[in-house]
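hi!! sorry for the late reply, been swamped w classes. u asked for the two structures so here they r. pasted raw, havent cleaned anything up. first the sequence of the first protein and right below it the tokens
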Amino acid sequence: MKICITGGAGYVGSACLRYVAARGHEVIAYDNLVQGHAAAVGDHALIKGDIADTEKLTRALQDFDADAVMHFAAATYVGESVENPAYHYRNNLGGTQSLLDAMRTAGVNRLLFSSTCATYGITAHVPTTEDAPQNPVSPYARTKLATEWMIRDYALAYGLGFTMLRYFNASGADPSGEFGEDHNPENHLIPLVLQVALGQRDAIKIFGTDYPTPDGTCIRDYIHTEDLAAAHLLAIEATTSDTAEVFNIGTGQGNSVKEIIAACEKVTGQAIEQEITDRRPGDPPKLVADPKKLITQLGWQPKYVAIEDIIATAWAWHTNHPQGYGC
């Protein structure tokens, strides 16, 4: 297949681009490079453009003669979405509408959408299945849920096959050590902890130690980007012009904040200074995926199950590239 990957220079998008290309598909990245990095695309083709530019995006799809689109381009910072919801709605919802219109004009009728477990909000049942109620608690998560519904409406009205992947906490780095996580600002736990080990920050903040979990800190399901990429490949290959499918992607097991810190100490061989502070509004105590549907229907299996193995790949990236793609 010829696959256009929006947000293909981002953390997860570029991991999927490299993985899919290595397995025989033609790929092209389309990214405005606001959060993405051209270096993350490697030797693959990159078009610098915004998904809001419907005309440019349409030309890119037509010139590439795309068969399908993997859509990763989105604003993802929860705090920013509270402070500036206009940007998130314009980028996430409006940008996706621009993409869908471009796909219609270019005659591309297969879409894989990168969604999120954040659409579930604070779940009553853990692990979480795909049919759990969706009650998002942040503007970011609401834009993702609204986008899911827009895709469904476009599919019904205009003929579009889609697969939505709601994934949990993307983590880790390319096993080669050449590609990894580089956000500004960084808001993911594992790289923040590793920044303490690198001497780039004084301590890691723990937001609340009184949650109803075994050690009082929040529990999350951490999934390696290579396992995410493998799921995306299986999903796009299974998506036809009349597919309408949703899958959770996670390992099915969770690690608490304190467990992540302890695992980072083990991998790096360094003590990690900690700072206890208040809870953040809207943080669910526990978010863990039930990946049975993905395993059963698409034959997916995670390669990275032990959290130390995931962290080891991240540590290799951060030690080799302490300033991210800047060095």
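now the second protein. again sequence first, tokens right under
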Amino acid sequence: MADILVCIKRVPDVSGEVLLTDDGQHVDARHVGYTVSPHELCAVELAVQVAGDTGGSVTVVTLGTDESVDKLRDAVAVGATGAILVEVDDPDAFGPRDVAAALAEVVQSGSYDLVLLGNDAADSGDFQVGIRLAYELGRPVVNGASTVTVEDSPDGPVVVAVGEGPEGQETYRVPLPAVVTIREGGVEPRYPSVPGRLKAKKVPIEERRPVSEATGSGRVRLVLPPPTPSAVQILGEGPEAAPAVVDVLEKLGVLTR
């Protein structure tokens, strides 16, 4: 049996153009909706699969305001069995160290064999929380796994985490309890059905407050990468451009002589 805690975060939907706030500290969410990152959606899916295979449970947790509750209910709608809101007045005041400390309080108050997180924060790009959490708990950590399973071994249950490394596919076997951060691509997340959403509305959300005060991220500012330059080549005008178009199509392999 594997009882799993999945950490998710309500973030601005940055599938389109990304804008920053005037102070450069956060993604400007005034003109976009909110979502959960694909990494975390995959983490929820993997947790549901592992819990189903081992007869365990899945609890989702997020740090935020009551506006984050709908994201918790989305996870319950696809198979999670419980949800926890670590309620704070200003989530932006919590840096990676603060988030890891608050999540550690949740883990230590329960009996979670495996903690899954997204590989990085979709809004700020922080890759820190999973590793900081593992150090807070004194647990082994695997970063950037695409799939996870739990297997028995002579020394006790282990988590098998598979991901892509510099030399190709890498497989790690670490004893439980453990922390694993998930990168999208290993599984296809399921999406809430209407019956699932109706069921999720009835699940109580456990609420708690963090014990420690936030110290902030120490971030100077976020910086957007420069736009990728594009080049335009004029092939000609009218029928005279036809030979040049044929040459381009041949270079692309669309046409052969």
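hope this helps!! also noticed smth abt the second:
The chain has a mean pLDDT of 87.
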